[in-house]
Structures are given as C-alpha cells and as structure tokens.
Amino acid sequence: MQTLRRLAVVSTVLLVHASVAPAQQTITFSADPFTGSTALTTPGRQIVGNELFTTFDPATDVFVFDPAVYGAYGIGSLSFAIGAVGSLPTTGVNTLVLAPSPIPFAAGTAANEIAARLTTSGAGFFVYFNSGLDVPRLVFSTDLNDENADLRVLARLTNLSGQGGRDALATFSSANFAVAVVPEPSSVLMLAAGLAAVGAHQAARRHRAGITARVRRT
C-alpha cells in the first residue's frame, strides 16, 4: 500500500506540474520550432509556416511551451502584455497579443511593428490577426526586438475568424500562456501501467487474505 501511495503521489505531481485544469484544452509545443528548417543558418529573416491548425477558446484554453526546448532560446518564464502596438511596454515583455490594426498585418509586418516598439532584445511569442487569412496566428520570434529575427508560425486559430475573432483578441490574458515541462508520452504510459499493476497486486493480496481468514474460521 505504501508503494501504491508513492506512485500516486508521483502521478499527482506530474499532472499538477503542467498547471492546467481538466476542463482546459492545452496546446503543447515541445519540439524545436525550427526543426527541419534552415532558417537559423540562412542570412536574413526567414518565416517558417506549416503551423498547427486548431481551435482556441481564450476563456479556457492554454498554450504550453516546454522549457526543455524554448529554454535554449532564452525563454524561462513569460511576461505578458496586450494592446495596440503603440501602447505596449517597451521592455520586460516576451508574450504579446496585438490588438487588430487598421494596417494589414502578416507575420512579418506584425513582427516589424513589435521590433520598432521594443527596446530590449529577447525571444518571445506574439498573437496577431492575419488580415489576409482573416484569423489570428501564434508566432515565435527568436528576437522580438530585431526586425531580421527568424519567425516560426506555431498555430492558426481557425475558429476565431472575422470580426468575432478580432473581438476575441481582447479577451486573451496571461492565463492563456504557460511554460511547463511536457512529460514524454512513454513516461506517462509507463506510470499508468505501473499504477495499474500495483493496484492489481494489492487487490490480489486482499483477496488471498480474505480467503485465508474464511478458511481459518471454518
């Protein structure tokens, strides 16, 4: 029983570590954003697409970034800001949600506006409304302060189209973004299998103990 309790504690720690409630959809990014691309070794800004197409509810859902991957780019924690580019803090932020702009935005133009606003270097994330696609997109930049920094489009939020999608950007908050360790699928499966095996063993022991007790009474 003590072993079972220890395994249960480990399981709880893994689940709590992600800091995500069961009702939330978590969209995790645990692979290097530029894997399979030559962007980082090619001079000038490179914009890598092939993003994830997904729905997203700002009231409940969370983007989760694995520090084992993004830590290599200097992301250890997130500092959030939202609003029109001209109203954003000029320093101390690395996670931005841009209010819809009268200027047509693509990933590159949005990144240029951010780079012109910020005064300190550092990698980060931003959500902007793509005028041509008519949906928001989540983008990672190797340096938000550099107009030549490489960009990786991580996600396209397919359900937030049109004016409703533009309006939804104002409802984003810091709760929609997290840095958390993403457990390896094999680790989670092994843990679940271990808990099941220990549980079955304990049940068998209780069953045998019950039979022995009945035999002794007779």
From TrEMBL:
Species whose genome carries this gene: Roseisolibacter agri
Stretch forming the signal peptide: 1-23
Domain Ice-binding protein C-terminal: 182-201
UniProt keywords, alphabetically: Signal
Database matches in InterPro entries: Ice-binding_C
Upper classification of the organism: Bacteria, Pseudomonadati, Gemmatimonadota, Gemmatimonadia, Gemmatimonadales
The protein, known as: Ice-binding protein C-terminal domain-containing protein
One Pfam family per UniProt: PEP-CTERM
Lineage: superkingdom: Bacteria
